């Protein structure tokens, strides 16, 4: 009788996670398909370096197998070992159960093909500015270039640097520039310091802790880049669980989302060289920015996946 009761109790307990048979999933593509189905079933949100369940599934599979995302196609039909398969499935289930961004689960994200360490101390990088540095600051006299000669840029400032990814991309793109990177968060700067060291850029990038321009004195820059907090109160209330796992400080831009942007536009003229300029990401707040600053001739820039979410303004126009 006691054995029968124990058996009945076990049968009524919460179901255990289903095991995935090795005969069912063999190749990288098989595991990607499995992950995509689980992600769609769980109605996950995707906005952290990957924009859809397929891209996120491929990212997790590659990370579990120590492959660069660019290598996925070459190994798509390769078979996965039993140990590797278990690791992939565990990551997929953890992504569904925790609703944390995939980048936090593997402590890595890629921007413009470069790997960066990330954890919960920083927002997961997904700025469009990295692409714009390549498309609009290329020099060689091409149409749309905002700075004619990248090698002539001497000083760059990255405000609200977070993980340091934009400062590092800027250091690569402007080879002769000294880059200052500022953040108010000690935890974020610890992550940035790790990334700067891993990319071997300690002699080119200096990290500063402080509120925007405060720790910089009278320094002036040929280029200021920034991806500041710009989510308004309504947007903060509607953030999906994935975004709620990230630091609130990196999102919250005040009631209308422009609290930090206003301060940057106010103080940037004092820190730009005469021929310099400001590149600022604002998300979907273009209308609010234009309404708040109708006198500024902002140039809105598009990328492959965005329209009018980043603006450029020359130092002369700010003054």
Task: Describe the secondary structure blueprint for this structure.
Elements: H1 2-12, H2 28-42, H3 53-64, H4 72-75, H5 82-98, H6 102-106, E1 109-111, E2 114-116, H7 129-136, E3 155-159, H8 165-173, E4 178-183, H9 186-198, E5 205-209, E6 221-226, H10 233-237, H11 241-244, H12 259-267, E7 272-281, H13 286-292, E8 299-303, E9 306-314, H14 315-318
Parallel strand pairs: 3-4, 3-6, 4-5, 6-7
Antiparallel strand pairs: 1-2, 7-9, 8-9
GO molecular function: nucleic acid binding; protein-glutamine N-methyltransferase activity
Domain Methyltransferase small: 153-234
EC number: 2.1.1.298
Strand pairing plus helix content: what structural class?
Answer: alpha/beta
Order of helices and strands: HHHHHHEEHEHEHEEHHHEHEEH
Largest beta sheet, briefly? 7 strands, mixed
* Terminal residue distance: 87 Å
Radius of gyration: 23 Å
| CATH top level label of the largest domain | Alpha Beta
Q: Give the neighbour order of strands across the main sheet.
A: 5-4-3-6-7-9-8
* Poorly predicted ranges: 1-18
CATH fold-level name of the largest domain: Rossmann fold
Mean pLDDT: 90
Strand content: 15-25%
Shape: globular
User: Which superfamily, in CATH terms, is the homologous superfamily of the largest domain?
Assistant: Vaccinia Virus protein VP39
In DSSP terms, counting alpha (H) and pi (I) runs of 4 or more, how many helices? 14
By DSSP, the count of extended strands is: 9
CATH architecture of the largest domain: 3-Layer(aba) Sandwich
Proportion in helices: 25-40%
Query: What number of domains?
Result: 2
